[in-house]
């Protein structure tokens, strides 16, 4: 993949003595949706934490837009153009919807017209605009995910790391959320997504990465991965190779 | 015999002071899971710092400023860096116990270095009465109420109306996510410690003219603020305010209508009732955080 915006090479790290990432290596092409799939414990979320500086790596290097961003602070990464939408509910329940979105601009450098960006974010999500003065806890699950995405857009990111956006959402909301991601991609934003719901995620993705035991098993066009008979087997609990370490 | 009106005003005045202390108490809990059992001693100490400043020749107004600044350094910055940060790594309970030790330490230090006797403390408001609704009300009470209300309103405005306040709330509600979107969480936590130190210094200045400066006066104050925070709702600033006012009024009414001997028992009984029937506090929400 020639025009990659992010590449991780040989990442090794984990929690305490447990090693989760075992030489993870892949790169993500610019302005694409790339989905990471893999069984539980493959290290998908851990890769995101590593990219976003939330996990101390023992080895490895992360390059973003031709710049070494390994172990940078969250603020530095945000300003470099990376944002991270973690799994689950990540809103500030007792603040209003608008204040939640405003907080997305906390790390903004001087000279950025935040009010304009807040309006732009609210334009993208009419449901959020309607409820902008309500407490964020009153939003539905899908709207809360939209709020997180809206908030992450305030710094005009080039790369969005989004972990399991479909969890807990109705099929309709999942489609809506995926459509938003597709719109973002069409506007030049690179999306790197983790999805348990592999089939529907790959259907809207350009590329897929298969992760297993902290190693990259496969990187290919999304439709080729979708049609690969070994993938079904992997998700049924089998290993891709019988001799997998 | 005081009238009900006088009792209410006096109760609200002490209650407002309890509220200041309770608000600081809940702020520390919210941002850093610190249950500060030394909070009462935190109120006792600044008065002595102010007295010490006056002893070396500072005028009263300057002594107040020195006292508040020293409190912010000792009870804010040093408390966080030397006690909370190292202890919190071991858990909430070891930290809570460490604050109990700190309470004893402060109390004994004041007894050793200042005096075991109660010292008078000047009031920022002149003595005398003011007529409100046909009642003579002590200027002292009115002054206390005005200062406490200004402090609480100022704090509430900071928390709800400014970006800094939203960042503090974000850091308290969900530090992991706050960090992810770039909120300087550590700085926000330090800020709440400084605010707490400011609030207890203010409370110290307001309450010491009434109860005198004494090494042991923190015991009652700490307990009142603790009860106020729990009654109001441990995780809500407005709960702490309501709880403080309620305990202040209740305390004064109990002293007049029940008995001065049982005065301290009434808020305790009230606390038990609240815990039995509404454990999250009057204005609190059930705790979602799993520690």
Straight-line N-to-C gap of chain B: 50 Å
If interface size is counted as residues with C-beta under 8 Å from the partner's C-beta, which chains form the largest one? A-B, 23 and 16 residues
3D shape of chain A: globular
The main sheet of chain B orders its strands as 1-2
- Ranges of chain B where pLDDT stays below 50 over 5 or more residues in a row are none
How many E strands of chain B? 2
Mean pLDDT of chain B: 89
Beta strand % of chain A: 25-35%
Could you state the order of secondary-structure elements of chain B as H and E? HHHHEEHHHHHHH
Order of helices and strands of chain A: EEEHEEHEHHHHEHEHEEHH
- Radius of gyration of chain A (Å): 18 Å
Kindly provide the radius of gyration of chain B, computed on alpha-carbon positions and rounded to a whole number of angstroms: 19 Å
* Sheet with the most strands, sense and barrel status of chain B: 2 strands, antiparallel
Considering DSSP H and I runs of 4 or more, what fraction of the residues of chain B is helical?
over 70%
Number of helices of chain A: 10
Which geometry of chain B do the CA atoms define? globular
Please explain how this structure is put together.
The complex is a heterodimer of chains A (245) and B (291). By secondary structure, chain A is an alpha/beta fold. Chain A has helices at residues 44-51, 74-80, 97-103, 114-124, 126-130, 141-152, 171-186, 198-204, 222-226, 229-235, and strands at 4-15, 18-29, 33-37, 57-64, 67-68, 82-85, 159-163, 190-194, 207-212, 215-221. Helices cover 35% and strands 27% of the residues of chain A. In chain A, strand 7 (159-163), helix 7 and strand 8 (190-194) form a beta-alpha-beta unit. With 291 residues, chain B is mainly α. Chain B is built from eleven helices and two strands, in the order ααααββααααααα. A two-stranded antiparallel sheet of chain B has the order 1-2. Chain B starts with a helix and ends in a 14-residue tail after the last helix. The mean pLDDT of chain B is 89.
